[in-house]
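Budget justification, computational time. The allocation requested in the original proposal was used primarily to generate structure tokens for proteins on the priority list. As evidence of use, we reproduce two of the resulting records. The first is shown immediately below.
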Amino acid sequence: MPENTAPALRPRTAAGVHPGKPGSQSALRQRNQQRILSALATGGPQTQAELSRQTGLSSATVSNIVREMNGNRLVITEPTTSSGRRALSVRLNDTGAVAVGIDIGRRHVRVVLASLGYRILEEEAVPLPLGHCAEEGMDAAADLLAKLLGQAGVDRAAVLGAGVGIPGPIDRRTGTVVHGAILPEWVGINIREALAERLGTPVHVDNDANLGALAQVTWGPHRGTDNLVFVKVASGIGAGLVINGALFYGHLGITGEIGHATVSEHGVVCRCGNRGCLETVASTSVMIELLSRGAGEPIQTADIVDRAAARDPATLRIIDDAGLAVGRAAANVANTLNPEIIVLGGSLTGLGDTFLAPVRRGFIRHCVPLVGESTQVLMSSLGDRAEALGAAALVLGRHGALLG
């Protein structure tokens, strides 16, 4: 197979879903229903006549779809008057329409279902094998979504869309993962199209650190913060940037790659081809490699947290070195952007102050004094849920569904 050729993907839909061909009557009906759901999410309660004007659908089509959605508890209808005439007002049922958030990592997939009122209805994570192929990861996400919809008693037609987070740079023009991803098996694959076919709903793909940042200003205690940086430390290290109240994507969408900032000019060669990148000294993969030397059994990320709690000297030294390096990289970002808050996330959040303290020391050491004094550096309260929650928020935001 040529180096830049993506592996062929087997067409597949989620368990129990048969959306039909793109031009079929059932597919057309589902698209029309999603248009009405989007109109209600954006514009609030409306009469059927207003929905017809806004969506461009005929009055008969709107009437039939609204009747069906009312039966499926997607909407609530109430008699009203419009221009002196009797009419039917239609509004979304908060527990009817849902957004899906999916976080696909190196070893896991997590799916959440969120209501229009930003309430989590169902949530679950399942493990994935290290080095899993894209098809395997997407199949697992589709199967888990089908399971959660069944548990919640939510019809698939009620799904507004799915946000998907991937640990790697995403070319926003094409929705494909580009070289440099933690999941090299996914490079070049159009996740947006492949997953939309499996899930039977529109899909929005983003970098996981971006979604972690979105989660902090949507679900976390920093809701409404205009300038925030989310730093995810895991197998890779990346940053999501909220600037002036919105995610910052730059020219192509490849931003926040602080894991590939040079922190040691004579360090080891990174997977990106450069030398001495932050990831070569501070990622969980490097920590695991160092702690596994001489160990009688394989070390996992959870073991780092357990060993730190037991005050193991080698573990504490590795965490301290990594924290100082992350703090230095965060300082460089802060000196450029001057955010209000920097939030640390990823699989090491369980370390708490053991990791946060050296990050803060490295941050203050390399920051412009006034920036260092005025910027909060905190641990995320959302833990390993942040990316999936941000993915759900991405869908809700696109539908203008901030009802809560």
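The second record produced under the same allocation is shown here.
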Amino acid sequence: MEDFSAIDKYVNAAKKEIGLPSGTAIAVVKEGEIVYEGYFGYANIKENKKVTAETAFYIASITKPMFALSTLLLEHNGDIKDSTSMAEMFPKQDFLNIDADKVQLKHLMSCSSGIENDAFLNTLAFTGNHNLKQRHTLLSASAKNETNPLGQFEYTNLGFNIASVWVDDFYAQGWQKILSETIYQPLGMNHTSSYMSDATKKGIAVARPYGLTGKDPTAILPFEKSDITMHAAGGTIATASDLGLFLIAQLNQGIVNGKQVFPAEVIKKSHQQLVSHNASFLDFKRTGYAWGWQIGPYKEVECFIILVVLLVLIPTALLFQSIILV
């Protein structure tokens, strides 16, 4: 049996150094199984609610690879293609400031669409003042990104949010339900949702957000997500063990608990580089972007796909990290 005590020591030492017992959940996956789970600190400090295996965290941009995989599964079912253009996705939409015939789904899913629309982004993520009609109105205001044209990488939520409007249109129901039907339910991610209201309905305990910049670090930060501000590039709550199931599917060609949950070819395609770029995060060198994933070499080992390191509202953190050999 492997010894993971070093993880416990590291996390506890970090919390002691920071001086704030905020919540942390860690899951380690190896050979198709979750081999370690660690839960530290408090989901709610003042109410003394400890983080447990049932504690969900708002996982922000981890939503991107989940939603991107969902679109590939929709492609596998014949509902859309990676080459489907925005003009084809929205045949009744007027796009006066972009060439909608050239922007394809694969550009939207790889942050290389060459368009910008801050009003659309801010409305979906922050103000929540929108319905489907208003989302279409905002979508029409999309403009060319003069500094990052089509085919050039610039990290953004925009493409995922645009694709979510197509999902709302095509299936006549919210992207959240489609994501649940294509990803969460097949994997048995029973403590995962893209509706904050499910926390109450399904009894999912969600870790509260904290930060070190205010006068009282133990005070819950004022901005928390609601259903209307959850979006397809950052709109999911999940437990560490549920994310472990999603990670196993990535590492094991779509097989989880001995079952082929997702077609192997779809998983493989989701890891394929769509655009190149040159950046880094700590010691992770990024050379490209796939379907919601940053990719590149790690520690001088070539041909690795690097998934995501996510810290949600530091120091309230969920660490979700993996390296996939391709």
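A brief technical remark on that second record: The first helix runs from residue 5 to 18.
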